[in-house]
User: What shape does this take?
Amino acid sequence: MKYVIIRDDDTNACMPINYLERLYRPFLDRGLPVNLATIPNVSTEAAYPDGRLEYFLVAKGETREKLIPIGANQPLVNHLRANPLYKVVQHGCRHDSVHKRAEFDHHDRAEIIKRLAEGKKHFYEAGFWV
Assistant: This one.
């Protein structure tokens, strides 16, 4: 038996539903699960080393909020919960690269634990993992 795992990184509160639908509806309609590696409390200032905003913020709009929890986009949450083949998994916490590298690529254990707990809290508040 062969398996295909479909995974999308960086789903977050700024993600338009139509992006997901366009990409993944054909898979969902065929009964294939889609794993969404989801940022639970996305930083709207996440940037590449050269200063450009991360591509996953393309649809963030004109918000002045620095952090947006996944539950702030209730239409997105409702859509994901209404489609049980979407599997929401935690992918970091904010993606703000506080340590100038990948979010968890450092040795500050207390910070890592704090961010994992923060992410879990945002998922529970949004109604995931209940």
Remarks:
- The first strand starts at residue 6 and ends at 11.
- Strands lie at 6-11, 34-38, 41-43, 67-69, 86-90.
